Amino acid sequence: MRRNPAALADRELDVVVVGGGICGAAILRDAVQRGLSAALLERGDFAGATSAHSLKVVHGGIRYLQHLDVARVRESSRERSALLRIAPHLVHPMPVVVPTFGHGIRGGEALAAAFLLLEALTATRNRGLVDPERRVPRTRLISRRQVVAWYPELEHRELTGAGMFWDGQVYNPPRLVWEFIRTAGESGGEAANYCEVTDLLRRNGRVTGVAVGDRLSGERFQVRAKVVVNAAGPFAEQLFVRCGIRQTARIALSRDMAFVIRRRLDGGRALALQTRYRDPDAILSRGPRHLFLAPWRGVTLVGVSSAVFRGDPDALSVTEDEIAGFLAEIQEAVPHLDLARGDIARVHAGLLPIAESGLVRGNVSFGKRSHVVDNAEADGLEGLVTVVTNRLTTARGVAERAVDLTFRKLGAVPPRCRTAETPLHGGAFSGFAELLSEVGESVRDLMPASVAGPVPERLARNYGSSHREVLRLAEADRSLAEPIGTSGALRAEIVHAIREEMAQSLADCVFRRTDLGTAGPPADSELGVVAELAAEELGWSAGRKATELAEVRSASSKA
Fold first, then answer.
1. pTM of the predicted protein model
2. Residue range 111-164, pLDDT digits in tens
3. Could you tell me the sign of the dihedral formed by the alpha carbons of 350, 356, 362, 367, in that order?
4. How are beta strands 363-364 and 195-203 bridged, if at all?
5. How far is the C-alpha of 284 from the C-alpha of 417, rounded, in Å?
6. 544-551 contacts at long range (C-beta below 8 A, 24 or more positions apart)
7. Which secondary-structure segment (H or E) carries 327?
8. Which of 160, 304, 369, 429 is the most exposed place for a label (fewest CB within 10 A)?
9. What letter does residue 522 receive in the DSSP assignment?
10. Which of 469, 14, 488 has the alpha carbon at shortest distance from 225?
């Protein structure tokens, strides 16, 4: 899929989507699958903001039991199943252990009751999941002896055991976003990164399209559309303010922060431990909110720290004081880790919508809500829909609601949505074990096993059934079959990212099309290899290459 913004100039489409995060990408895919002509415009790179900086968790709904929010429990379970079905290479089940204490609300009896209710509400969670490795097991209680064997540091006189439930985990969120876009492209959808919507075209109280500035070429053009969907996430209202549609933003935002820690949890299980903070919306609370430690690609993800954000979304940053505060909270919950600032490989921060009623002394509840707004009702402006999603988990379902509304704005009955059933690009395989075996055989034809190392699993998880696209490049040019350092990434992946996946910068290659820099700063030697490949493909001068390297090193150092 090639970048060609000029092809959109002066086109008239059914719908233009503004924003290339998980929600915008899902809307584009749904719209074209249901027969609409559609394009997506992203001012930076796809998945360059909130979508890339999550805790990588696909929630199964248990968190909403304490709010007695049955609808959201079922929604989360349904959407987790959809992602396991349509992107089985990128999403897999992840066990979560929750220790129990005493025999009250924090005890095993109360958790067992919650598990019974969860099982009843999510009984259809494995429908359509053919691969046993992608099915979500039943919740269960764990004995005290087993918990202490797994986590000796948790031994405490009040410890009675633990409960285990399953969420999902995303191996590489930016690639999940890209697979939505690539799948849309296969059905006629168009997308362009580094194209900023500078204004909304309006006539007689109706939005008729968008004015666009290509941030790479400097060219300006217009794209006309019957409906514009503003899916720019936390930046959506900033567009309205710039265009004079609203004086100020109306949707409150939460800054959610998570750490990548240079440690590895044994056993492949996530661990949930309580912190000092409470969920202000909880009806049936087990006590303070939980801190989650999740194993991920050889490191550990720890989150989430939430705080009200009232500033400019474009100026989002995390201060050293905030990092130190969250680190102290982690240390209080899991003192045996003895974490220091140097243990943090990366700091992830993103913005999510909240309701003002969900704020208590600066704490933010789990009751964050997605917004699908008809701006004809909210602002008296026809032809415009605004979408702000609150979870990667539910983005596909929120996109379905947005496309349903788009059809109604077009005066048509929405056709049935099929995005929960049809695999994304790379997701067309029956079992991950068989896929991994197939990839392994292909890699062995290119390099000896002693050199391959993590290459087969990385290719299988990042590209799924489309791994042959990368390997064909390596077969045609054996120099591209060389791994980049010890990362397991092939040189062919960089060439493929630029030629077929719209990567325009070194950061695109390192942080979003591959996983070279997502679990921590890549080695300087690896960066040098990637920069050489990108410079050759994109025709960079020595000065441009040096600038690109400096920008990636700077981004990597902001741990």
1. 0.94
2. 999 999 999 999 999 999 999 999 999 999 999 999 999 999 988 878 999 999
3. negative
4. unpaired
5. 35
6. 548/505, 548/506, 548/507, 549/506, 551/505, 551/506, 551/507
7. helix 320-333
8. 369
9. P
10. 14
